[in-house]
Amino acid sequence: MSDSMNSSARAAAPLAPRVRGTVRIVGAGLLGSSIGHALTARGIDVALDDASPAQLRLAVDYGAGRFAQPDDAPSLIVVAVPPDVTADVIARELSAHPGVVVTDVASVKLQPLHELRARGIDLTHYIGSHPLAGRERGGAISARADLFIGRPWVVCRDGETPADDLALVEGLALDLGAVPLEMSPEEHDRSVALVSHVPQLVASLLAGRFVDAPDGALGLAGQGVRDTTRIAASAPELWVQILGANAEPVVDVLDALAADLSAVATALRAPDAPGARRAVADTIRRGNDGVERLPGKHGQNRRFDSFVVMVDDTPGQLGRLFGELGELGVNVEDLRLEHSPGAQFGLAEISVVPDAVRPATEGLTARGWRIASTND
Questions:
Q1: 63, 33 in Cβ contact below 8 A?
Q2: Residue 350: in which H helix or E strand, if any?
Q3: Distance between CA atoms of 189 and 348, rounded to whole angstroms?
């Protein structure tokens, strides 16, 4: 084998796991089981524990790990339990496994830290963390090994955190394909209030208006309203805990949002009044500016142009569309599908770099595809 072939083989080989030994995961729900699946797939020994025997058996049956044993000697402990018991479980694990690094994946970082400090617990080997990943449905049955790929994983350290402990938790994130980011607990909780917790409430409030809506109105719903309310399917019992644990920063954002809503409502009550139309336009424009700041592909703030292709609702059509885009040398940056109610076709919105819109649409049209619209 030539040196160039040896180099290619080495480049293609996956990196050895950064986490070694046994990883103990306490909590076999969506996040805990997903971590278990991902680590098991990398050859790591995963010992699962959960207060619910049924949930634990289900996670083991699905291959997220094995049953934890009393004589396990874990190298890392991951606490993946609901927020209302996170501090209790962290304290128990630190006591039961002195010297072992303990991290948790709760979506709120400040409240459990305050609880642990109030109890006087030695937190030298505790590092709070939080993967920004999830699904609308929870439980071991919804777990996926690829849940964390490309997602941010916040790691909350302090000045007393041992460097080796920090490297171990960041190594866990990297082994799962996530992108570790360091934040203080305060910065984390303020950030997730804005980009996660309040959006959940907004989606739920909007979807709640559908409960008493006429069937005819709901029959008009398109992809826009589905995108806006997708996360409204989340579990209420979990979100009651999350929102209660992060109430102060959530209320700050809600108060500001309520003021914005009030201003728009005032303008629309008298749409012909001086300045009313400008107030509405400024609201939409500010939303444009906010969306532009959201990181896109590879974390860039780069925007793409898009075009919409009509796709017959028959087997193989979407695969054929992607295959022919590949033949045209067009890289798909993003995709959104929408089905028209009562119609035997779907609409595939394809996002590409601006220069690719014309060759893509012209090439697809020449191959018989119907282009519904473009925004280039």
A1: no
A2: strand 345-352
A3: 36
Segment 51-66, tens digit of pLDDT = 999 999 999 999 999 9
- Domains of the chain and any CATH numbers: 11-183 (3.40.50.720), 191-293 (1.10.3660.10), 305-374 (3.30.70.260)
Whole-number CA gyration radius for the chain: 24
pLDDT tens-digit map of 283-298: 999 999 998 888 764 4
270 φ, ψ (degrees, to nearest 5): -140, 70
**Could you give the count of Cα atoms lying within 13 Å of 350 in the half-sphere of its Cβ?**
27
> Is pTM, for the whole model, over 0.70?
yes
- Annotate 139-200 with DSSP letters as a single string: SGGG--TTTTTT-EEEEE--TT--HHHHHHHHHHHHHTT-EEEE--HHHHHHHHIIIIIHHH
Phi-psi region of 140 (alpha: psi -120 to 50; beta: other; left: phi over 0): alpha
H-state helical runs in 270-373: 276-293, 317-327, 357-366
Residue 212 has pLDDT above 80, yes or no: yes
Percent of the chain at pLDDT > 70 equals 92
Cβ-contact 84, 104 below 8 angstroms: no
> Residue 122 has what DSSP assignment?
-
pLDDT band per the 50, 70, 90 thresholds, residue 241: very high
Are 203 and 236 a contacting pair, CB within 8 Å? no
